[in-house]
Amino acid sequence: MFDQEKIQQATRLLLEAIGEDPQREGLLDTPARVARMYEEICGGMQQDAAEHLSTTFEASEAGMVVERDIPFYSLCEHHLLPFFGRAHIAYLPSGRVAGLSKLARTVEVFARRLQLQERLSAQVADALMEHLGAKGVIVMMEAEHMCMSMRGVCKPGTQTVTLVKRGAFEQDPALVDEFFRMVGQR
């Protein structure tokens, strides 16, 4: 699906546009390296979260399932610069649970696309609601955006936090409080 040659051509043009010589020894293989990199870091474009969330296990007595501190890396769609951080997820199963690694894989599917953090949080929550049939989902993401840290306002270390609630988490503040305690936020 990725057009490696177009990415390489674009990289050569970018190098020329910033005053570099694409034929310089250190840059000769850069277009190919950049093309391989984009195929890897944008690989979520070729994936569907349903694939990871389709295998579930019976757990009729399961309470809130929380997975915290899931590292993620993504690219801001406005500047094509990275943003990275941690995701914290909880869901209330409806009698079935997903394997724990599947939550991290779901974050990865959506993070490996050109993104906005706000959309990323919502996509993860919506996928869990849809594919797990959860009674409720909450997703909190904390990230540093390189477009804010290394350019523009130049405020490294600034964290952007997004919170998305679905289902029971929208109606029950006690569930939200319990989630925050479990992820160490209160």
TrEMBL record:
**Domain GTP cyclohydrolase I: where?**
7-183
Tell me the Pfam families matching this sequence.
Answer: GTP_cyclohydroI
Which residues does the record give as Zn(2+) binding sites?
C76, H79, C147
In which pathway is this protein known to take part? Cofactor biosynthesis; 7,8-dihydroneopterin triphosphate biosynthesis; 7,8-dihydroneopterin triphosphate from GTP: step 1/1
Keyword terms, alphabetized: GTP-binding, Hydrolase, Metal-binding, Nucleotide-binding, One-carbon metabolism, Zinc
Q: Which GO terms describe its biological process?
A: one-carbon metabolic process; tetrahydrobiopterin biosynthetic process; tetrahydrofolate biosynthetic process
Keyword GTP-binding listed: yes
Catalysed reactions, as listed in the record:
GTP + H2O = 7,8-dihydroneopterin 3'-triphosphate + formate + H(+)
Gene Ontology molecular function = GTP binding; GTP cyclohydrolase I activity; zinc ion binding
GO CC terms of this entry: cytoplasm
- E.C. code: 3.5.4.16
Which InterPro entries did the record assign?
Answer: GTP-CH-I_C/QueF, GTP-CH-I_N, GTP_CycHdrlase_I, GTP_CycHdrlase_I_CS, GTP_CycHdrlase_I_dom
Its top-level enzyme class, in one word, is hydrolase
Q: Which Gene3D superfamilies does the record associate with it?
A: 1.10.286.10, 3.30.1130.10
Q: How does it assemble?
A: Homopolymer.
| Classification via NCBIfam families | folE, PRK09347.1-2, PRK09347.1-3
Q: Which family does it belong to?
A: Belongs to the GTP cyclohydrolase I family.
Q: By what name is this protein known? A: GTP cyclohydrolase 1
Q: Which organism is it from?
A: Slackia equolifaciens
